[in-house]
Amino acid sequence: MVTHLKNEIRKQILAKRNALSKDEIEKLSDKILERLLSHPKFPEAKIVAFYMTKGSEVDTKKMIERAIKEGKQVLVPVTGQKIAFYKFQSFDDLVQGKFGIMEPKSKDTPFEQCPDIIIVPGVTFGLCMHRLGYGKGYYDRYLSDCKAFRIGICFDFQIIDKLPVHENDQRMNCIITDKRTIQ
């Protein structure tokens, strides 16, 4: 029953998100970037993990560029059996990986320690601070062992009041949208 409900929510939110134009995504992503930069945890973070944007997700490119400009070490994920984070070199050092998501071609060994902050994608987030991803559980498994400060980012319409939750679903510390920051 929970899985069926989660799939229905995913379908509805993705249809709405996929209807956004590239210009709308860029403008809303810029607003999210400004909110992220003004979050008190961001300036003090030395290591920040970002997801690589796919499709109509909040665009993280400017966020990554800004973090690098501020001297932060940036990590990005590689998805295999599980998710692992690697040092980001440059946007020229990316190749399409599993699920069509860009990932570093130059990867030595995964970064072992938890980042200070992890920017987490989601199809939708609830006011309960949980997220609904694409249903594979990669981020939930990673977050269960990592105590980084978790910031979920999404467009404001992706926030819903009640989200069905499973015992393995991991909570965010904060959710940032184009209109608000939820703590």
Feature tags:
alpha/beta; 5 helices; globular; 183 residues; Rossmann fold; 12 strands; 3-stranded mixed beta sheet; 7-stranded mixed beta sheet
Can you give me a brief rundown of this structure?
This protein has helices at residues 2-18, 22-38, 41-44, 61-69, 138-145; strands spanning 47-49, 73-79, 83-87, 94-96, 102-104, 117-120, 124-126, 131-132, 149-153, 159-160, 174-176, 181-182. The protein is of the alpha/beta class and 183 residues long.
Describe this structure in words.
This protein has 183 residues and is an alpha/beta fold. The chain has one domain (2-182): NagB/RpiA/CoA transferase-like (Rossmann fold, 3-Layer(aba) Sandwich). The chain contains five helices and twelve strands. The chain has helices at 2-18, 22-38, 41-44, 61-69, 138-145; strands at residues 47-49, 73-79, 83-87, 94-96, 102-104, 117-120, 124-126, 131-132, 149-153, 159-160, 174-176, 181-182. The strands form three sheets. It has a seven-stranded mixed β-sheet with strand order 3-2-1-6-9-11-12, sandwiched between helices. It has a three-stranded mixed β-sheet with strand order 8-7-10, with helices on one face. The two termini are 29 Å apart. The model has no long low-confidence stretch (mean pLDDT 91).
Largest sheet: 7 strands, mixed
Q: Report the strand count.
A: 12
Question: Tell me, what's the shape?
Answer: globular
Name the CATH homologous superfamily: NagB/RpiA/CoA transferase-like
Provide the CATH top-level class. Answer: Alpha Beta
Topology order in helix (H) and strand (E) letters:
HHHEHEEEEEEEHEEEE
Taking all Cα atoms into account, the compactness measure Rg is 15 Å
List the domain count as a whole number.
Answer: 1
Helical/strand content category = alpha/beta
Q: Poorly predicted ranges (pLDDT <50, ≥5 residues)?
A: none
